[in-house]
Amino acid sequence: MFETGRTGKFAKIEPRLRIVIGDIRTVGGFSVMPSVRDLNRILFKKRSVMMDDHTGKLMDAAGKMAEVCVQPAAVYGLFPPENISCSALQDSSLVGLALVTIGPALEMAVERARESGELALATVLDAYGSAWVEGAVEAVQQVIILESEQIGMKWGKRKSPGFPTWPLENQRELLTILHSGRIGVTLNAACMMMPRKSVSFGMPLREKREVTGKSISP
After folding, report:
1. Residue 81: is the preceding peptide bond cis (ω within 30°)?
2. Is 92 left (phi over 0), alpha (psi -120 to 50) or beta?
3. Backbone angles phi, psi at 2, to 5 degrees
4. For residue 48, what pLDDT band results from cuts at 50, 70 and 90?
5. pLDDT tens digit string along 137-192?
6. CATH, residue 74
7. Partner of 94 for a Cys bridge, out of 32, 88, 127, 205, CB 3.0 to 4.6 A?
């Protein structure tokens, strides 16, 4: 089932009330804000920056174009750690696994800008895409945190395939577990995701001493 919020793109992802281990939830149309920190880091190598008038207008135009193109969607769930081949997650009680994308429309807009010779616009649009997908990842990460807290778990730092403790080739395993086709994400021969503005990750979840009493099913 593909869930969307009541107010469409600007809806918040609400945590599930009944959490089934191994169940995959598909969500779309949820609220996303671009990560300004990531945008400045990508474009200017700084977390914050003062812009001249020309740069400001370019950023505004690209931001409006990017917002129209963004189509956030995600699949996620809580799983036993033995389901995934990542040594850094094996000492967890459970793992939160997720795949997030903003869809292909923004990439198409970047390509059109390049083909028309608007290279500065293409560069800024691409950076906005990275910032938007990070914003989407943060939204999904937050709902995983809320669900883990509901069942008495504490959460650890997220990790993605391609990091030292999680080989990139294991991306295929992760996307298979999460049924990535539900949100239109595929892998090429090099295990890179398509659309490019997609992120997969896992989070270690460990038991707390106290459980809140929310429902959990094995």
Report:
1. no
2. beta
3. -100, 110
4. low
5. 999 999 999 999 999 999 999 999 998 889 999 999 999 999 999 999 999 999 99
6. 3.40.109.40
7. 205
CA distance linking residue 30 with residue 72, whole number of Å: 7
The answer as to whether 65 is a domain residue is: yes
What is the DSSP pairing of strand 25-28 with strand 186-187? unpaired
pLDDT for res 9: 42
pLDDT digits (tens, 9 = 90+) for 143-152: 999 999 999 9
Q: What residues make up the domain containing 179?
A: 2-213
For residue 218, is it within any domain? no
In a domain, 118, yes or no: yes
Classify residue 59 as exposed, middle or buried by CB count within 10 Å of its CB (0-12, 13-18, 19+). Answer: middle
- In total, how many domains does the chain have? 1
Q: CA quadruple 39, 29, 181, 108: dihedral positive or negative?
A: negative
- Alpha-carbon distance of 30 to 5, in angstroms, equals 6
* Contact (CB, 8 A) for 168 and 191: yes
CB 160 within 8 A of CB 166: yes
E runs forming strands in 32-141:
73-79, 94-101
